[in-house]
Amino acid sequence: MTEGEAWHARFRAMVGAVSGVVWTNNAAGEMTGEQPAWSGLTGQTRDEYQGYGWGKAVHPDDAQPTIEAWNAAVADRRPFEFEHRVRRFDGEWRLFQIRAVPVLDRRQEIVEWVGIHTDITERRQAEAALIEGRARLQAIVDTAPVSIVFAEAPSGRLVFGNAGIERVFRHPMRYSSDVSEYFKWEAYHSDGRRVEGHEFPAARSVTTGESATGEFQFVCGDGVRRWIEISSAPVREPGGRIAGAVVVCSDVDELRQAQIVLFNNQRELERLVEIRTRELAASQAQLAHALRMDALGRLAGGIAHDFNNVIQAVQGGARLIERRATDPQEVRKLAGMIGESAARAASITRRLLSFSRQGDLRAEPIDAAPLLAGMQEILAHTLGAGIRVQVEVQDGLPLFLADKSQLETVLVNLATNARDALQGEGVLTLSAAAEVVRDSRSPGQPATLTPGSYVRLSVADTGSGMAPAVLAKASEPFFTTKEIGRGTGLGLAMSRGFAEQSGGTLQIDSELGRGTRVTLWFPVEHDASPTKAASLKTRSRAAGRARARLLIVDDDPSVLQTLAQQLEAEEFVVLTATSGADALATLERGEIVDLVISDLSMPLMDGLALLREVKRRQPGLPAILLTGFVTGAVELAMSDAVKGAFALLRKPIEAQLLSERIALMLDAAV
Predict the structure, then answer these.
(1) Which of 49, 92, 521, 563 has the smallest C-beta neighbourhood within 10 Å, fewest atoms?
(2) Separation of alpha carbons 578 and 599, rounded Å
(3) pTM (two decimals)
(4) Checking phi first, is residue 551 left (phi over 0); if not, alpha (psi -120 to 50) or beta?
(5) What is the rounded distance in angstroms from the CA atom of residue 76 to the CA atom of residue 616?
(6) Which fold has domain 128-264?
(7) What is the pLDDT of residues 507-565, one digit of tens each?
(8) Where do the domains of the chain lie?
(9) Residue 101: enclosing H or E segment and its boundaries?
């Protein structure tokens, strides 16, 4: 190979590696010769794009500005940069960024122009969505009656704030100020001393990392002195460094004035009450909003705490695997820990969705006896030696319908509550019995139950019990008798939401000194029995596997590789594709595929579009869609989009559960 041939080979390789459409124009700026990349993008033939014919593929609003800018760049012999819309071969308009440079010979004369079109449609859409999201966040926090700002550390510069700061202090927001500078107006302690800048809670949080609260009397922008409460909390990065502080300022002047008047002169207080009566409705609305904000804050704190624990375990386990890659036993142990942490994260999202009754439940026939036996084994080792766990199951119980994973989580949460009530010593009883509801008004049965057959699960303890006032609020969201930091008050509310979403309900019976019993009702599965369910599951797995060939499609390489390896471990033959087009090419090559598994959300061709094409080519080919969406919109879209044997499964999903579903579908297709 000559030097020239080697150079051309390298050039062709570089062009092939570029993520974009590469083209060349002659020295005068006209497109000549063969331009396969441009033809592949636009569908234009060689005769159509010659000269300035390429401009016909550009959006009519962009064509003339593009040609004028291009001619100017050619005339000035300078690099060309521009953005315009191009009609792709399939008729879709896409936004492209153009960059072109002149190629000079030894005499510095232009020989030709080399350019590249890069598709930036998704990038611009993402930028627009980010701007819209920030604007929406700003609009939301601007409705708060309090001042909310974020101060960077260590400078204390204000980088975010809501409109409330102007309502509270009667001063305009200045993002260029640091905390001390912004609060430099006259401020006084209750004893009349002037407040120094470093004494403000915000300044303490960004410098020392402390949470702080204080009340100060400010001379506000309108010249009136008002009592302002300032609360500040540090925000830390994952490594522990202080990123800044969130500062909340509330106008408490009316409250302080009322306290002073009450202390000094009862008659003056009555006069102020009479004056403020007209504003009572507005004050009540503000109070209700503040309570909602407080509840939201406690909920967010609890969720953040749970997820940070999961992230800590996953991150730490991954780092340890990197360091101990040569120790198989330790790697297996750490991998198991990471898997358990991921399962806890999935459980958190499912519990929140169950509480809001927007989550999807994977109901399946459940046998109460082995379920409670398994729970007994787990709880006996976790509740403590002083707590005896016993199981009482009625003979001949039918199967009932529920999401097993969420049900186990609910039972563990109820057992944890019982452990706290037992204070380390007592009896915890897990029981199951059948019940037929003929009339919702029957004594001892919740009024929300519709007539039908149910299996009743109970978690009872011999603990301290609850007073009537506590019992009345026990399952309300955010109500908790635990100390701060030990509970969000969502456990029983989530349990009730799960039970009702499953077609049953939840009831709490308790009495001081006599313990507590929490009962859950679930509808009976009439067409299944424990023996039938077990035999069907075993037969389907055995019949469906048989070295079946699976085609897995996902645009995320890590997800694709992990899923492929898991299913190969389950004795399937796995083919992979990173896009819908890649998957169709695999089928076009004549590869034998028994079932297709595709991610729903993928660029260019999503999972629904792929399945339509697969069904058109091979109508009888079973398919599974995997998605992380949690609303009914996916099912509504699929109802008209895909016909034939297919299933929709939610992420995350255990490999064993996916394997069993594959086996059942393959068995049904035989």
Answers:
(1) 92
(2) 10
(3) 0.35
(4) beta
(5) 53
(6) Beta-Lactamase (3.30.450)
(7) 888 888 888 999 999 999 875 444 444 443 443 344 445 579 999 999 988 888 888 98
(8) 18-119, 128-264, 311-356, 363-523, 537-669
(9) strand 93-104
